[in-house]
Amino acid sequence: MAYCKECGAAKPDHQVQLGVCDECFNYSSKKQSTANGTRSPTGTSNHNIILTTSIDVPNRTIERVVSIVAAEAALGMNVFRDIANNWRDFVGGRSNSAQKSLKEARTACLDELRREASALGADAVIAVDLDYNELSTGGAGILFVAASGTAVKLAPIAPAP
């Protein structure tokens, strides 16, 4: 049994990915697609946090640096995925299961960067860097994704004259 970090409920292992159960993940996705969005304690919406790999935000002025933020995600590649990937290595082509795992881990990291920046009262995260690694643990692989960046507060947008 695994525990969901959102609702705290004990769920079967296959229903909890990256610490969030399927129900909370689906609820969060639907909630973020509405106009209300997810609110942080500071009152800013998590999905309004700007993420960029550049050192600035176009047409915006950085008022101050808030902090460095980072997030990590580790996904276990199950035996069936490993078998499918080994077969795909042999015959060639793209591995949909591996691509799905990479996307899931990347999305989780970027969402966590947004949550951390929002909790600190930042408006954006600049210089975002994503790192990917695979750890082999006796036949099974663990996909590890790390994201980091600098949380900044942006100056208010000046009204047009």
Describe what this molecule looks like in 3D.
- There is one protein chain.
- This protein has 161 residues and is α+β, with helices and mostly antiparallel strands.
- It is built from three helices and eight strands.
- The chain has helices at 22-32, 79-91, 96-119; strands at 2-3, 10-11, 16-17, 20-21, 50-51, 62-77, 124-137, 140-154.
- The strands form three sheets. The protein has a four-stranded mixed beta sheet with strand order 5-7-8-6.
- A hairpin with a 2-residue loop joins β7 (124-137) and β8 (140-154).
Strand portion: 25-35%
Helicity level, as a percent range?
25-40%
- The termini sit apart by 59 Å
The helix/strand series, from N terminus to C terminus, equals: EEEEHEEHHEE
Quantity of strands, as a count: 8
Low-confidence stretches: 28-44
Compute the CA-based radius of gyration.
Answer: 18 Å
**Can you give the mean pLDDT?**
77
Total number of helical segments? 3
Largest sheet: 4 strands, mixed
Shape: globular
Strand order of the largest sheet: 5-7-8-6
Q: What structural class is derived from the secondary structure elements?
A: alpha+beta
